[in-house]
Design brief:
Elements: H1 2-50, H2 57-66, E1 74-79, E2 84-87, H3 103-111, E3 113-119, E4 126-133, E5 139-146, H4 154-194, H5 212-268, H6 275-307, E6 315-318, H7 319-329, H8 331-336, E7 340-345, E8 349-352, H9 354-370, E9 377-385, E10 388-395, H10 417-423, H11 429-439, E11 443-449, E12 453-461
Parallel strand pairs: 7-9
Antiparallel strand pairs: 1-2, 1-5, 3-4, 4-5, 6-8, 9-10, 10-12, 11-12
Organism: Herbinix luporum
Protein name: histidine kinase
GO biological process, one term: cellular response to phosphate starvation
C-alpha cells in the first residue's frame, strides 16, 4: 500500500508539473509574442516618422537599418494597392508578387495595424509579420523577422527549467514518502492493536492521528472490539447459565423422584403398617409428583416464551378482573402469613394472552406474600402512562441484596436458598415474569432495599 500511495503521489505531482509547465510555457510564449509585436510596431512608427516618401525610400531604409547591424529585420514599403516600392533585402522589385492579399496587409488596411505568422517561402523558416498603415501618405510599411517563439529562448530557459523540475521532483519524493508513511504507519498500529483482542483483559488504545478518517477507523475498530469482547462475555455467561440450568433441573427433578422412589420402596417393603400411614405416603408421593409436574410445566412455559413458537391466542384482556380474582384466590395464603393486600386498579384493556397475564401477576403477588414479614403489606397498582400499561407490585418484605438484583430473574436463582426451600416453589417464577414481559416487548424494573421490601414496575405497550 505504501508503494502504491507513493507511486500515485509521484505520478500526480509529475502530471501537475507537466501541466503547470505547459501553462507557463504558453503564457510566456504569448507574452513574448505580444512584446515582440509591440517592439516591431514601435520600430515601424519610428521609420514612418523618419521617411521622406518624396525621396529615395530604399536608401533611407538601408540607412536606418545600418544603425543596428544586429537587427535581422526586413522592411518592406508598399502602396495601398500592395505593390512593393522599397525593400531592405531586394533591389529589383519587378519580380516581387503583389502583397495586397497578404493577411497582415488586409488587416492594416482595415484597422491600421496587421499581424501574421507563417513560414517564409523564400527562407523556409517561421516569420512574424507586422504591417502599419503610414500616417504620412498612402503607403503600407511592413516589418518581418524570424520568430520561433519560446524555442529561441530555450538555451537560456532550459537549465532553469531542468533545475526547477529536479528540485520539485526531489521535494515531491520526500513529501510523498512522508505522506505515504503518515497513512500506512497508523494502519500498522491499528492492526497490531487488533491482535490484542485474543488476549485476556486487554483494552485497545489508539493515539490521535493526523487524519480524521484514520481516527474514525480507529474508533470504529475499538467499538467493534469492545462489542466482540462483550459478546464473548455474554456467550460465556449464557453458557454458564445454561450449565447451571441443566444442573439445577437435574437436581430439582432428582429430589422429588428420589422422594417418590423412597416412599414406593417403603410401601413395597410393608413398612406402612396401617391405612393411615399408607395414605400419608400416598399423599407425599402425590405432592412430590405435583411439584415435579409444576417444575416441568414452568420449564416448558419458559421455553415456549423464549422461542415464541407456541400458538398464543391474543385477545382484549381486562386487567382489573384478573387481578381481583387472583387476590381472592390468594386470600388464604395471605391470611396464613398475616399479610394485607391493597389494590389500586384503573380500568385497562391490554391486547395479550389472558393466561400469560394471570401467570405474570400470580408469580409477583405470590412472591410478595411469601417473602414478606408477618403483618406486612402488598400494594398493587395498575395504571396507564402514555401508550403503556403500568403494573406495580410492592411489598414490605425482606428485600433483595444489591449483589443479587441482577440475577433474581435467572432460572432457579434463589437469594436465600434455605428460606426458599421452606417456602416452596420451583425457583422459576421471576424468570417466567421476565420472559412474559419480553414477549410483549415490555420492560421490568426492580427496586429493593434489604429489610425494607421490594418494588417491581412493569411497562407493557397497550398495542
Amino acid at each position: 500500500m505504501k508503494r502504491a500511495i507513493f507511486k500515485n503521489f509521484i505520478i500526480i505531482i509529475s502530471l501537475a508539473l507537466l501541466l503547470s509547465g505547459s501553462i507557463f510555457s504558453t503564457l510566456i510564449s504569448n507574452i513574448l509574442l505580444g512584446k515582440t509585436r509591440e517592439n516591431m510596431i514601435d520600430l515601424l512608427q519610428i521609420i514612418d516618422q523618419s521617411l521622406d516618401y518624396s525621396e529615395d525610400i530604399k536608401s533611407q531604409i538601408d540607412n536606418l537599418l545600418a544603425i543596428n547591424q544586429r537587427n535581422k529585420s526586413r522592411i518592406t514599403v508598399m502602396d495601398i494597392m500592395g505593390n512593393v516600392v522599397a525593400d531592405s533585402d531586394i533591389s529589383d522589385y519587378n519580380n516581387i508578387d503583389n502583397h495586397l492579399n497578404r493577411e497582415e496587409i488586409q488587416e492594416a488596411l482595415k484597422a491600421g495595424i496587421g499581424y501574421a505568422k507563417r513560414k517564409s517561402n523564400t527562407l523556409g523558416i517561421p516569420m512574424l509579420y507586422v504591417s502599419y498603415l503610414s500616417r504620412q501618405g498612402n503607403y503600407i510599411l511592413r516589418i518581418s523577422m524570424p520568430y520561433s517563439g519560446l524555442i529561441n529562448y530555450m538555451v537560456y530557459l532550459l537549465p532553469a527549467i531542468l533545475l526547477s523540475l529536479g528540485i520539485s521532483l526531489i521535494v515531491s519524493i520526500i513529501l510523498g514518502n512522508r505522506f505515504s508513511r503518515s497513512i500506512t504507519k497508523p494502519l500498522y498500529e491499528i492492526s497490531e492493536e487488533l491482535l490484542k483482542i485474543n488476549e485476556d483483559n486487554s483494552n485497545l488504545s489508539f493515539r490521535n492521528y493526523e487524519y480524521y478518517e484514520l481516527n474514525l477507523i480507529a474508533n470504529t475498530t475499538k467499538q467493534m472490539a469492545d462489542a466482540i469482547r462483550e459478546s464473548m462475555k455474554k456467550i460465556e455467561f449464557e453458557k454458564m447459565v445454561r450449565q447451571e440450568f441443566f444442573a439445577n433441573v437435574s437436581h430439582e427433578l432428582k429430589t422429588p423422584i428420589t422422594s417418590i422412589r423412597g416412599y414406593i420402596e417403603l410401601l413395597e417393603n410393608g413398612m406402612a403398617t396401617d391405612e393411615k400411614m399408607k395414605k400419608e405416603f400416598m399423599a407425599r408421593i402425590k405432592k412430590e409428583s405435583q411439584n415435579m409436574a409444576n417444575l416441568i410445566n414452568d420449564i416448558l412455559m419458559i421455553s415456549r416464551l423464549e422461542t415464541k413458537e407456541a400458538e398464543v391466542i391474543i385477545s382484549e384482556v381486562r386487567i382489573c378482573p384478573i387481578v381481583n380474582d387472583l387476590i381472592a384466590s390468594l386470600k388464604p395464603l395471605a391470611s396464613e402469613n398475616n399479610i394485607s393486600i391493597d389494590i389500586n386498579c384503573k380500568p385497562i384493556i391490554l391486547k395479550a394472552n389472558e393466561g400469560q397475564i394471570k401467570e405474570l401477576f400470580n408469580n409477583l403477588i405470590v412472591n410478595a406474600i411469601k417473602y414478606n414479614k408477618p403483618g406486612g403489606k402488598v400494594n398493587i397498582t395498575v395504571s396507564k402512562e402514555g401508550n403503556d400499561a403500568i403494573f406495580i407490585v410492592e411489598d414490605t418484605g425482606v428485600g433483595i441484596p444489591e449483589e443479587s438484583k441482577a440475577r433474581v430473574f435467572e432460572r432457579f436463582y434463589r437469594v436465600d436458598k434455605g428460606r426458599s426451600k421452606k417456602i416452596g416453589g420451583t425457583g422459576l417464577g421471576l424468570s417466567i415474569v421476565k420472559h412474559i414481559v419480553n414477549y410483549y416487548n415490555g420492560s421490568i424494573k426492580l427496586e429493593s432495599e434489604l429489610g425494607r421490601g421490594s418494588k417491581f414496575t412493569i411497562r407493557i405497550p397497550l398495542n
